[in-house]
Amino acid sequence: MNCNSCSNKLTQDEVKNARQGGYPNDFCSPCRKEWKRNANLLRRYGLNLSDYKELLASQEKKCKICNAELLQGKTVVDHCHTTGAVRGLLCYNCNFAIGALKDDVQIALRLVDYLYQTEKENGRLEQLDK
Predict the structure, then answer these.
(1) From CA 86, how far away is CA 83, in angstroms rounded?
(2) DSSP state letter for 130
């Protein structure tokens, strides 16, 4: 029996899994994993896997905020919780920070002002400019 997606020969375990319901039948493990990921992206964000890969490439596989390398399985699709619109791909830490700020621009600006003022008071602002 061959995978219906890539035509590779299925292992015995994959043939056994193909007989169970819930997932596309006759897919090899890598194709089934990709199918599940695509279904999740479509359901949650309205993105298909090819859109996601284009977005990742357009960001050069870097977090849109801190420029850290985006690692597989650790990348978060950032989206507006009001409109559902996708804003970009972030690392876990930056996505967590946005959530902690309640997606509120005014809070984020006060945070930046606070950090700026305290660094200025401590004489570290010159180091930040370098």
Answers:
(1) 9
(2) -
